[in-house]
Amino acid sequence: xxxxxxxxxxxxxxxxxxxxxxxxxxxxxxxxxxxxxxxxxxxxxxxxxxxxxxxxxxxxxxxxxxxxxxxxxxxxxxxxxxxxxxxxxxxxxxxxxxxxxxxxxxxxxxxxxxxxxxxxxxxxxxxxxxxxxxxxxxxxxxxxxxxxxxxxxxxxxxxxxxxxxxxxxxxxxxxxxxxxxxxxxxxxxxxxxxxxxxxxxxxxxxxxxxxxxxxxxxxxxxxxxxxxxxxxxxxxxxxxxxxxxxxxxxxxxxxxxxxxxxxxxxxxxxxxxxxxxxxxxxxxxxxxxxxxxxxxxxxxxxxxxxxxxxxxxxxxxxxxx
Length: 321
What we know:
By secondary structure, this protein is α/β, with parallel strands linked by helices. Strands 4-7-10-3-11 form a five-stranded parallel sheet. The chain has two domains: 203 residues, P-loop containing nucleotide triphosphate hydrolases (Rossmann fold), CATH 3.40.50.300; 93 residues. 37% of the residues lie in helices and 17% in strands. About 2% of the residues have low confidence. Helix 9 crosses helix 10.
């Protein structure tokens, strides 16, 4: 990745009230000019107050912040959109099974120097981020492989330095370096069966996160606002009623899931996908099947169709032969 200016540090303070629309007198550091690694601003994004304040504490006071919540609540996007408004470079790293220790720390690579092939060490993603004014977001933190988690543990201390034994180097964090993580579970493993591949986190490592915030599904009115802001085609009386009913259906599904009646829940991301598909196919009912119903257990689909009926006041139309 391209290096950032090594001396770059936040060079202005901005009002949380003016930038994020949250009623507080807090001010946060920011960069005056964006760089190529700053996420794109979504002008329609709606910020959740408590989550935003937790993440801003991470940026302002160099706190390690872990966001936990069910899928589709927008944990990673929340951090990215805050970084975008602060012009803070942001690197999002998914800790899936394809990421290995060498990807994280670096490896030897062949390069050409004065027409000669030489072997040189190239920093991985973690050393690169650590040496730059970057907000590093570790996605799916509770799915990380054990050998990666112990590497990450080294930098979770505020003054955490990274040792590269292969290079006899000790890397001190840049003053503008920040680290965040997102997880579907609370580090105790998956008891719901929803998140295969997640695992219990080392409690010693979990203790190194200064702030653990939970991002739940939004209130109905806010979820409707998000759909309408992303899809202005619905922003008329009929469209707003339709979106309200879609969110109502999602809420019934979530209650059924919480009560143990369903094994699948409906995230805000699914509601947005349903709304997008309804515009594409011009058919609300078939879009509901394509976006959500078809992934439900066959024995539970009758109950989901009942939720649809309760939300819209009519039965779900049968599929055409």
